[in-house]
Design a protein that fits this description.
It is built from 9 helices and no strands. The chain has 210 residues and is mainly α.
Length: 210
């Protein structure tokens, strides 16, 4: 029964994610769900809460430069509530899933209040770093009309970071910090590997553009 619910949710989510935004498309959801399941199985999470939350965590996609960006998790939770209710999930489970969705967001800045929230935070943040994180950063920045980097001072040594305008700035404004913000031991190990790769990329980029 649980697997049938996951399959139905997957089908619903697949139809509602944007096709023109590779940084926040259905494949992002697939990766986050897979990582949640992997970590959840290792440390004993409630998969009946964690997997629906992973599948629905971005069901409402708010662009990075939108004034409601910090409300994206709340908007996704509101949309998820009706979907889960229509699937017949009990109210106690629904509320646990919604709390997990609300707490996953980096923009909202909420600390996790459950193991499931901690894992979803980690899985979503892991998808922002490493090789896939680099790809997503440049994809998202292109959609927003940002430049790759500041033309005269790419690495912001003597200016304020402006990651709405320069994609490279986003690495320093957010991405290089994420490895130190992981909640669970499996995510901490994985984040360290991904951070090392990302730092190598930044070092090589510096030799090519400065």
């Amino acid at each position: 029964m649980l697997m049938q619910t996951f399959e139905k949710l997957t089908q619903i989510v697949q139809t509602q994610h944007p096709q023109n935004d590779p940084s926040h498309d259905f494949l992002h959801v697939v990766r986050v769900r897979k990582k949640c399941e992997e970590i959840g199985n290792q440390i004993g999470a409630k998969l009946d809460i964690l997997i629906p939350a992973a599948l629905l965590h971005d069901i409402v996609n708010v662009p990075k430069n939108h004034p409601q960006r910090a409300e994206a998790a709340d908007l996704s939770a509101a949309a998820a509530s009706k979907i889960l209710s229509d699937l017949g999930m009990c109210s106690t489970q629904i509320e646990a899933v919604l709390t997990t969705i609300r707490e996953h967001s980096f923009s909202a800045g909420r600390p996790p209040t459950s193991l499931e929230s901690a894992i979803l935070q980690d899985a979503d943040r892991l998808d922002s770093i490493g090789a896939i994180g680099i790809a997503r950063t440049f994809s998202c920045g292109t959609l927003l009309g940002s430049l790759f980097y500041h033309p005269s001072e790419p690495f912001a040594q003597n200016r304020s970071l402006a990651d709405k305008y320069y994609m490279l700035d986003h690495f320093y404004a957010k991405l290089v910090k994420l490895a130190d913000l992981m909640n669970t031991p499996p995510a901490q190990v994985e984040a360290k590997k991904r951070a090392e790769l990302m730092n190598l990329f930044l070092q090589q980029l510096k030799t090519e553009i400065t």
